[in-house]
Amino acid sequence: MNSPFHDGEVRLQDAAGVMEKTRAFNAVVIRDHMPEQHRDFYPLLPFIVIGAVDDDGRPWATLRAGQPGFMWSPDPRALSVRLPPDADDPADEGLTEGRAIGLLGIELHTRRRNRLNGTVHRTPSGFVVAVEHAFGNCPKYIQIRHALPRPNAVRGAPEISDDLTVRARTIIAAADTFFVASFADLAHGRQVDVSHRGGRPGFVCIGDDGWLTVPDFSGNRMFNTLGNFAVTPKAGLVFFDDATGDLLQMTGRVELELSADAHAFNGAERFWRFRPERVVLRPGALALRLQADASGISPNNLRTGTWS
To answer: Is pLDDT above 80 for 102?
Structure first.
C-alpha cells in the first residue's frame, strides 16, 4: 500500500515536526481494508457521521440514524449501509453512485471511534462503501454521551440561509461536540474525510464578522482535516441540539491560522477559521437523543479551557 498521506497532510506534519514519526506509526494502523474489530463495531452503532461533497463542490457533514444493524460489513473491503435517500439533507447529493465519501463510526459512551473513506455504490436499500482507508482514532476530546431513542420525533421543514441566524448562533455557543467534513482532489481521485471535534461548551468562538474560530488540540498527528484544508480550503460542519433533535449543517470556506497565538485558548496548538456560506437548520432531524453523561466532561478535555 502506498503512503496514505497527501501533500497537504505531509506539509502540516512537517510543520509540527512529527512527519517521520507519524508516517512510521500510521503506516501500520491505516489499512486499505477493515480489520475484524472494525467490521464487528459498525453493526453496533445507532448512527453514523457522513462527509460528502455536493454537485457544486461544497462539503457537507451529516448525522444519519438507524436501528443497530443498519450497517454491516459483507467483506473486509466493503461496508453496507441501509439508509434511504433524504432530500432534506444537503449531504444527500454527495451520496450518489461513484462519489467519494467519508464515514466516522463513533460510540460516544465508550469514546471509541473508527474512520473510513472510500467510494459509494448505490443499492436498492442504501449504499455500499468500497473501502480505501480504514483506521481507528484515540478517544481524546470525546464527551461521554448515551444514544437514546427520541420517541415521537417530529421533523420540520429545513430553514436555509446564507449566514448565521440567532438560532444557529445559540446552538454553536452551547456545543461541546461537532463534526467536520473536508476533502482533497488528488491524482487518483477525490478523498473525503469526516472528523470529530470536542471541547467545553463555548470552545467554538463566534466572531462579530460571522466567522467561527476553532481551536486545534493535540491529537493523532495525522492532520487529515487540516491537511485537506491546506489543499482545499472548504469545510462542512454539523452541530446538534440534543434537547430538540435539531441539526445545524453549514458549508463554507476555511482559513488556517498555524502561527496564531495558541495561548488565546488553553490547550490549543493552532486554530482554523470557518466562514459559513450556506446554513441549513433541520428541526427534529436527529431521531436520537445524544444525552450527556452525568459525570460531565471526559478527563481528556481538562486541558481545553475557555477563550481568554
So the answer is: yes
When pLDDT is cut at 50, 70 and 90, the band that residue 303 belongs to is very low
Task: For residue 299, name the pLDDT band (cuts at 50, 70, 90).
Answer: very low
- Sketch out the chain's domains with CATH numbers: 7-292 (2.30.110.10)
Lookup: cell for 57: 463542490
Tell me how far apart the 2 most distant CA atoms of the chain are, in Å: 52
DSSP code string of 154-207: -----EEESS--HHHHHHHHH-SEEEEEEEEEETTEEEEEEEEEE-STT-SEE-
Cα dihedral sign, 22-27-31-35: negative
Encode 198-214: b = buried (16+ Cβ within 10 Å), e = exposed.
bbbeebbbbeeeebbbb
Which DSSP symbol is given to 144? P
Q: Would you say the pTM of this structure is higher than 0.85?
A: yes
Q: Where are the beta strands (DSSP E) in the chain?
A: 47-53, 59-65, 71-75, 78-81, 100-107, 112-123, 126-137, 145-149, 159-161, 177-186, 189-198, 205-206, 212-217, 234-241, 246-257, 268-282, 288-292
Residue 223 gets which letter from DSSP?
-
pLDDT for 29 equals 78
**Residue that the C-alpha cell 509540527 belongs to:** 16
> Residues 163, 165, 168, 169: is their CA dihedral positive or negative?
positive
Residue (of 110, 117, 115, 137) closest to 25 by Cα position = 137
pLDDT at 7: 77
Say if residues 184 and 231 touch (Cβ distance below 8 Å): yes
